[in-house]
Design brief:
- InterPro entries: CHP02611 (IPR013434), Uncharacterised_PGPGW_TM (IPR019099).
- Pfam families: PGPGW.
- Keywords: Membrane, Transmembrane, Transmembrane helix.
- It is built from five helices and no strands.
- The protein is mostly helical.
- The chain folds into two domains: about 70 residues, no CATH class; about 45 residues.
- The termini are far apart.
Length: about 120
């Protein structure tokens, strides 16, 4: 029974962790979900506790570093984050989908990864 519980918890915690990692560059609770997934895994797996501690430490370190930076550096980080979000939305076909709703059939909206 213990093995079944650990496998189920590992699977669920892993899915939560992957979902959180996917959401990190987007506005919203990406890091919170990453830490929740690691927290779930840490209840049964020592490696997850170590990764969770490491990740929280470096997340807080990064946020303190950003807070100390000149507004130009903050703007550059925000611009890079925005570029990552826009590129991933384009690659996933979101622009083509919304363009289709609006009747726009522009070729550059289509993702190079989607066929059809």
């Amino acid at each position: 029974m213990n093995t079944t519980y650990r496998v189920a918890l590992g699977g669920f915690g892993g899915l939560v962790l992957i979902a959180g990692l996917t959401m990190v560059p987007y506005p919203g609770p990406g890091w919170l979900i990453v830490f929740a997934g690691l927290g779930l895994l840490a209840t049964e797996f020592a490696w997850a506790h170590r990764v969770n501690t490491f990740a929280k430490h470096h997340y807080h370190r990064w946020m303190r570093w950003i807070a100390r930076q000149h507004p130009v550096v903050k703007l550059a980080v925000m611009t890079a984050t925005c570029a990552i979000v826009l590129v991933t939305l384009w690659l996933m076909g979101a622009f083509s989908l919304v363009g289709g709703w609006l009747g726009l059939r522009w070729g550059w909206l289509r993702s190079p990864l989607l066929i059809g």
